[in-house]
Amino acid sequence: MSNATFPLLQVSELSFAYPGRPIVEDWSQDLGPGITLLSAPDGAGSSTLLKLIGGALAPASGRLIAAGLDAAIDPQPYGRQVFAFDSELQAFQQQTALDYFDHVRSRHAQREPGQWERHIAGFKLESHLHKPMYMLSTGTRRKVGLTAALTVQVAVCLLDEPLAALDLPSIRHLAAALAEYAAAGGTAWLIASHEPLPDHLPVHATIEFTRIP
């Protein structure tokens, strides 16, 4: 099948709740190529929604399909087509950025050669590559995660608050890369952000996501 035949991401009747706190109920949404802004007030559950789509949480019910792959039927192939930006990288605290990049390379296809080096330089990570993750600042860990997000070639890329704790040059680098990759097509970028996105970022669609009463 081609991307013209089906959306890159299909969410059908998704439901999930924490004890005493419903997050989504029978929520459906299709995403095509380009950037979609997930607009939600603080505490509405946008981070939980991205974890559900990314596979870090299991929904109570519903269906998730990425690039034609059903998360319930083909969880590993689905996982290779969905990348979720991890801002804290808690599972890699004792490992280096290079170790994390090797892990990402083992799970996902890559963009054309030279993209790792491009984004390592763009985020000025050269001096941090051999340090254990726990030694890095919050902003630097975020840059490590964003380098991976920009370099993988996947159908769906989930970015949760990507601008937080970033310096202005890094925000500019991220925005320029996102604009370039969005124009190229092939990936549905779902960005949850409480902060306004840069004006020149080509947002294809906006999803208003609010907490269930």
| Sheet/helix structural class | alpha/beta
Into which percentage range does the β-strand content fall? 25-35%
- Topology order in helix (H) and strand (E) letters: EEEHEEHEHHHEHEE
* Helix percentage: 25-40%
Mean pLDDT: 93
The total domain count is 1
Largest sheet: 5 strands, parallel
The CATH topology label is Rossmann fold
CATH class (first level) name? Alpha Beta
Question: Which overall shape is indicated by the principal axes computed on the Cα atoms?
Answer: globular
Protein name: ABC transporter family protein
Organism: Roseateles toxinivorans
InterPro entries: ABC_transporter-like_ATP-bd (IPR003439), P-loop_NTPase (IPR027417)
GO molecular function, one term: ATP binding
